[in-house]
Amino acid sequence: MSHALSPAPRFAGKTALVTGAGSGLGRAIALAFAAEGANVVVAGRRPAPLDETVALIGRSGGTAAAIAADVSHPEQVRDLVRGTVERFGGLDIAVNNAGVFRGGAPVAELPLADWQSLLDINVTGVLLALQAEVAHMRANGGGAIVNISSNLGAHRRIPGVAGYAASKAAVSALTRAAALDHIADGVRINAVSPGASESSMSLLPGETEADRAVRMKQDSPLGRISSASEVAAAVLYLASDAAASVVGTDLVIDGGSSA
């Protein structure tokens, strides 16, 4: 009698960097990579939540390290990539998930400070991360990058979130442009655009998770939010060898809301 061998973890021996990994989707993505054998560096502005993510990964038998960094500061992003390489010997996969949400005002009343924050973190932060990540990857045999955008922006618009939608539309466009610029360097770049998902960003002001579930039964064709694990699964696919010919795609995960 023969026994089938268990498949090797998809990311065994590889190192993945996940920004915005102190909570929500970023934490779920980091946990998913660790569960599939990757060494994971979790990054964010506040050390305490990052340490919690590292502890969760450790308790599950994975390997992770935390590096505090603000993606809107070029030197901190360069230090983040350098620190990742020093800790684990390389950088094979990067997930640029760090972002902020500012909403609730129409364009005519959009505070300039909110607009600037959205651009600094959601757009410039992704650009700076791409520059540092690509610089290492193209000099070291290539890699895969997944940017986290949103279904709000290039795919869908709703009132009151023009600044956020504009910033995420920029991420979607930047992803496609960067993908064309750097596929010849051996760096595959794609995006995932979640809709309402298992994250605090999808809660309206004062709304509970139970309230959100009721609202989504009406607002989403699927009738619910996407789970964090469903979004993470899409990210891991795009980062994996199974997606070797997927270049410059923007994969929407929103239960049909932007269909």
Automatic annotation (TrEMBL):
<dbReference type="Pfam" id="PF13561">
    <property type="entry name" value="adh_short_C2"/>
</dbReference>
<dbReference type="InterPro" id="IPR002347">
    <property type="entry name" value="SDR_fam"/>
</dbReference>
<keyword id="KW-0520">NAD</keyword>
<feature type="domain" description="Ketoreductase">
    <location>
        <begin position="14"/>
        <end position="195"/>
    </location>
</feature>
<dbReference type="InterPro" id="IPR020904">
    <property type="entry name" value="Sc_DH/Rdtase_CS"/>
</dbReference>
<dbReference type="InterPro" id="IPR057326">
    <property type="entry name" value="KR_dom"/>
</dbReference>
<protein>
    <submittedName>
        <fullName>Short-chain dehydrogenase</fullName>
    </submittedName>
</protein>
<dbReference type="GO" id="GO:0016491">
    <property type="term" value="F:oxidoreductase activity"/>
</dbReference>
<keyword id="KW-0560">Oxidoreductase</keyword>
<comment type="similarity">
    <text>Belongs to the short-chain dehydrogenases/reductases (SDR) family.</text>
</comment>
<dbReference type="InterPro" id="IPR036291">
    <property type="entry name" value="NAD(P)-bd_dom_sf"/>
</dbReference>
